[in-house]
């Protein structure tokens, strides 16, 4: 059995994650993004960054000032990305809920990702709702990856069963 997937054919106005590069590319995003958690909108912005990597839906990095005061609580631990460097994590906190290690940042990312230094990405699976340009996001499958799937992104996506070797 061939472990490589057959990419879905993008329709008009769609992007295929199989056209994204490896190593990943960073690009500016000008559009609306909101994140809701615990009954509150905890982040909102009209400017962000997208990290685009083969087989992955985009991961969005929002400016730290897009987040409401007090919702980001630094937590212990870190991880390493071969492209961006060392990530540090945040718990997301509202008056009614907490999500452990649901957000992360690269304080000193490797080039060419320096533009996202200090910006925050969020695991869509850990919050109530994320939107991009008003559309509800579907979280990238697998629980490990932080990509956000919208109707203009086609896969198949890394994280589904059998995708470990992609």
Concise description?
The protein has 166 residues and is an all-beta fold.
Describe this entry's structure for a reader.
It is a single chain. By secondary structure, the chain is mainly β. It has a single domain (15-149), classed as Metal Binding Protein, Guanine Nucleotide Exchange Factor, Chain A. It contains no helices and 15 strands. The protein has strands spanning 15-16, 25-29, 33-37, 40-45, 48-53, 56-61, 72-81, 85-93, 98-105, 120-122, 129-132, 135-136, 138-139, 148-149, 153-154. A four-stranded antiparallel sheet has the order 4-3-11-12, with no helix packed on it. It has a four-stranded antiparallel sheet with strand order 7-8-9-10, with no helix packed on it. The radius of gyration is 16 Å and the shape is globular.
């Amino acid at each position: 059995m061939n472990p490589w997937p057959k990419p879905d054919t993008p329709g008009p106005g769609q992007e295929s994650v199989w056209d994204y590069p490896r190593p990943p590319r960073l690009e500016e995003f000008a559009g609306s993004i909101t994140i809701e958690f615990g009954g509150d909108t905890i982040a909102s912005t009209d400017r962000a960054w997208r990290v685009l990597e083969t087989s992955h839906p985009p991961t969005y990095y929002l400016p730290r000032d897009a987040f409401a005061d007090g919702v980001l609580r630094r937590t212990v631990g870190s991880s390493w990305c071969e492209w961006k460097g060392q990530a540090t994590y945040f718990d997301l906190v509202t008056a009614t809920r907490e999500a452990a290690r649901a957000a992360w940042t690269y304080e000193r990312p490797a080039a060419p990702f320096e533009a996202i230094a200090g910006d925050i990405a969020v695991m869509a699976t850990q919050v109530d709702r994320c939107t991009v340009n008003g559309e509800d996001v579907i979280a990238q499958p697998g629980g490990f990856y932080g990509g956000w799937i919208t109707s203009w992104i086609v896969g198949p996506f890394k994280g589904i069963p059998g995708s470990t070797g992609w």
